[in-house]
Amino acid sequence: MQTKYIEFTSGDAPEFIEAAMALREGKLVAFPTETVYGLGANALDSEAVRSIYIAKGRPSDNPLIVHIADRDMLEPLVTEISPNALKLMSAYWPGPLTIILKKTDIVPDVTTGGLNTVAIRMPDNDIALELIRKAGVPVAAPSANRSGRPSPTMAKHVLEDLDGRISYIIDGGPCRVGVESTVVDMTSEPAVILRPGGITPRMIEQVIGRVELDRSILERKPVDRPRAPGMKYKHYAPKADVFVVSGEYGNIAEWLKKAVTDDENAGIKSVILAAKEHIREYGLKNAISYGSIENAAEIASSIFRLFRECDRMGADRIYVEAIPKEGMGLAVMNRIEKAAGGKIIQAGE
Ligand code: TXA
Ligand code: MG
What we know:
- The protein is α/β, with parallel strands linked by helices.
- It folds into two domains: 4-232, Alpha-Beta Complex (DHBP synthase); 241-346, Threonylcarbamoyl-AMP synthase, C-terminal domain (Rossmann fold, 3-Layer(aba) Sandwich), CATH 3.40.50.11030.
- It is built from eleven helices and 16 strands.
- It has helices at residues 14-24, 46-56, 83-92, 126-135, 155-162, 201-208, 215-218, 249-265, 276-282, 296-312, 329-340, and strands at 4-7, 29-31, 38-42, 65-67, 97-102, 117-121, 139-140, 168-171, 182-185, 191-195, 211-213, 241-246, 270-274, 287-289, 317-321, 344-346.
- The strands form two sheets. The protein has an eleven-stranded mixed β-sheet with strand order 1-8-2-3-7-4-6-5-9-10-11, with helices on both faces. A five-stranded parallel β-sheet has the order 14-13-15-12-16, sandwiched between helices.
- Strand 2 (29-31) and strand 3 form a beta hairpin.
- Helix 1 crosses helix 4 (126-135) and helix 10 (296-312) runs parallel beside helix 11.
- The longest helix has 17 residues, at 249-265.
- The protein is globular, with a radius of gyration of 20 Å.
- The protein starts with a strand and ends with a strand.
- The model has no long low-confidence stretch (mean pLDDT 94).
- The site of threonylcarbamoyladenylate has 31 residues, from strand 5, strand 6 and strand 10.
- ATP binds at residues 58, 62, 117, 143, 151, 195, 236.
- Keywords: ATP-binding, Cytoplasm, Nucleotide-binding, Nucleotidyltransferase, Transferase, tRNA processing.
């Protein structure tokens, strides 16, 4: 299959309209959102949705998020919308918040991995919204990476993974948020966050009061049967072995210096991803800055890209300095710990 690359210019460009029509008719179209690039298919077309799983090499019990452009698109997809769900939509849509509701029969089983619920989100990206509007159908879209690889935050990442496996890719530049949307289950009381993301737990609490965190977020190792099926797989991982290094910053620095030297002596190519302040303060070698320790949002927007860059550098090991699990730090650490698959080092103990 030839993948047609489109650099976005305007919603009226003939090639953009062609991609939207192809999407409606069952083809796969990768497109930018504010979080990561999505791999879109007509959510109401079982065959089209099935082809997403094939292109990604994704297990088919892992349900997809259905993307909509406006509230009118929501009504036919869900049986009811609770007052709290409505409040969240008003507060954070369009935005990086995915809301799980009970599905109607028009949503095919393959879209929801056989569940009787459906995950819905309205992305905060004009290109995505225009594409969905022009296609005129809700769009099922997982992140546009091969299953298990870091999520794509630039069009070139999508091409790295999916060139020749999908019909179109629309390049809308780098993604602003950089980690996936927060997934919140509104079918239970209290609501439960199944995946931390661009909207923090506090932001949700400010609107609807108490919200729980699913245990898969609190456990550092993959759990057996998480409520968001996607959370059980090794995820977001570069080819290199990822290690999370946590503890006091001084201890982390000591540990990293020794590890890099030991690796060097053993012929292992290791790379450190750490805060720019610490790289400077501790004079760390082989280190790349993921942003400022003061700014978890900045780290979120660079982490997946850096994982891919480490692969390109041929790294065998990546040591990632942990950050506090506060605000966006919760989502960032969730992705890093998943990439590490449980390899977590407590420096100084
Ligand atoms: O930011 C995002 O959400 C990106 C962009 C493209 O919108 N999409 C994304 O999709 O991250 P994906 O497929 O990579 O992740 C969807 C997550 C998975 O963990 C999945 O298990 C969970 O949402 N999920 C989807 N539907 C669900 C449902 N009905 N019940 C529980 N979890 C669900
Ligand atoms: Mg994904």
